[in-house]
Design goal:
The protein is about 45% helix and about 20% strand. It folds into two domains: about 1-190, 2-Layer Sandwich (Cytochrome Bc1 Complex, Chain A, domain 1), CATH 3.30.830; about 215-405, Cytochrome Bc1 Complex, Chain A, domain 1 (2-Layer Sandwich). The protein is an alpha+beta fold. The chain is built from 15 helices and ten strands. The strands form two sheets. It has a five-stranded mixed sheet with strand order 1-5-2-4-3, with helices on both faces. Strands 6-10-7-9-8 form a five-stranded mixed sheet, sandwiched between helices.
């Protein structure tokens, strides 16, 4: 159990993290981790239904939710610190005593299918999923976290209970208490046999999964904009190069003063939304550029994006850009950690996914040590055109047209 006392707050957050996500699923289990996350809110032995759980928390104005990723699943309750024991008791009840009721399971299938449809109907959200399907072909990291309608509707209560028992064990749990903590409350009695560092579960490695011939994926859709996700393989959570890559990403497309935002949107008016971002997993990662583009000027926009990538490879970045990016990170860290829930995530995710837990000051020190040469080195390592992957949602069916734009 990790405790993170936060002064100057009256809030308390309890966060439970488990090393289970979509990358641990077989093809027939696709979406199981996410489905179980939903079912944890559907009733326990002491709190038989959803309303019993939600009313107990809504009555005291608590914030509560859960999330499933490819590497982990998390559950949290943020509450007035005077109600700390309620949050701990309720969360432990949900995690260890959920009924996984068959009728609720069948009802929730419809909810999850609509969630899948919602994301697929939103090109801005869905294009990044297509990009990772392309990057991690025939690998669990390339599958939709929520699964498919066919698989979700086929999941049985027996299959779910077996999966739940395999992963939802106290020995797999990272528990974080953050904010104003009442030391008189014994949280350990609710969560027995907790580890501060969970032993990573075995998973199918995704290293070198990007080395295949297909590098374009097109989803035809009659849209006014063309939605693009263009990217490259990058680094895992624990890779030392992530510090330089984070700064590279900020300079390239991470802010409203970044190179891509300036060149693509401000100077040429080719897009409303243009950004770059990083995805880190336990063994791999990626850097992806996303944009919603004028379909009549797609070729021009792709040319500008590729030109900025080549410029960073050949020339690097400036001292001023490097300094600004470091200050940006420092500022964002300070702002993001004002909340007890953010403090809980900061330490909990590191404990679950990384070899070493760093304080904010320790991580900022690593960012401040990044040099211009480091940026140029990771840029030339990541931006290898042979590894480039491009996902597009828009009124296109002819892959050759897109290849011509990128000179593939």
């Amino acid at each position: 159990m990790i405790t993170v006392p936060v002064e100057s707050t009256e809030a308390f957050t309890v966060l439970a993290l488990f090393p289970v996500g979509s990358r641990y699923e077989t093809p027939k289990q696709g979406g199981m981790s996410h489905f179980i996350e939903h079912m944890m809110f559907k009733g326990t032995i002491r709190r038989p239904n959803t309303i019993d759980i939600s009313k107990a928390l809504d009555r005291v104005g608590a914030e509560y939710n859960a999330y499933t990723s490819r590497d982990y699943t998390g559950y949290y309750i943020k509450i007035d610190s005077s109600k700390m024991e309620l949050a701990i008791d309720l969360l432990s009840d949900m995690l260890w005593e959920s009924k996984l009721d068959e009728k609720e399971l069948e009802r929730e299938k419809g909810v999850i299918v609509e969630e899948i449809n919602m994301y697929r109907d939103n090109p801005t959200m869905y294009v990044e999923q297509l990009f990772e399907e392309l990057l991690y072909q025939n690998h669990p990291l390339g599958r939709d976290i929520a699964g498919t309608e066919e698989i979700v509707r086929s999941i049985t209560q027996k299959e779910m209970a077996k999966y739940y028992k395999e992963f939802y064990q106290p020995k797999n749990l990272v528990l974080v208490l953050a904010g104003k903590i009442d030391k008189k409350i014994n949280a350990a009695k609710y969560f027995s046999k907790i580890n501060e560092k969970v032993t990573p579960r075995k998973y199918l490695s995704a290293k070198n999964k990007h080395k295949h011939s297909t590098n374009i994926k097109i989803r035809f859709k009659e849209t006014d904009q063309v939605h693009v996700a263009l990217g490259f393989p990058a680094y895992s959570h624990d890779d030392e190069r992530t510090f330089a890559t984070t700064i590279l990403n900020i300079i390239l497309g991470g802010t409203m003063s970044s190179r891509l935002f300036t060149e693509v949107r401000e100077r040429r008016g080719l897009a409303y939304m243009i950004r770059s971002g990083l995805n880190h997993y336990q063994d791999v990662g990626n850097l992806v550029i996303q944009a919603g583009l004028d379909k009549k000027r797609l070729a021009e926009a792709l040319e500008v994006i590729m030109a900025e990538i080549e410029k960073i490879k050949k020339v690097g970045v400036t001292e001023d850009e490097l300094s600004m990016a470091k200050e940006n990170i420092a500022g964002r860290v300070v702002l993001s950690l004002e909340e007890s829930s953010a403090q809980a995530e900061w330490y909990g995710k590191q404990a679950l996914l990384m070899k070493k837990i760093m304080t904010p000051a320790e991580r900022l020190k690593r960012y401040n040590a990044v040099s211009l040469a480091d940026i140029k080195k990771v840029a030339n390592n990541i931006f290898n055109l042979k590894d480039l992957k491009l996902a597009i949602i828009g009124p296109y069916k002819n892959e050759a047209v897109i290849r011509k734009m990128l000179k593939f």
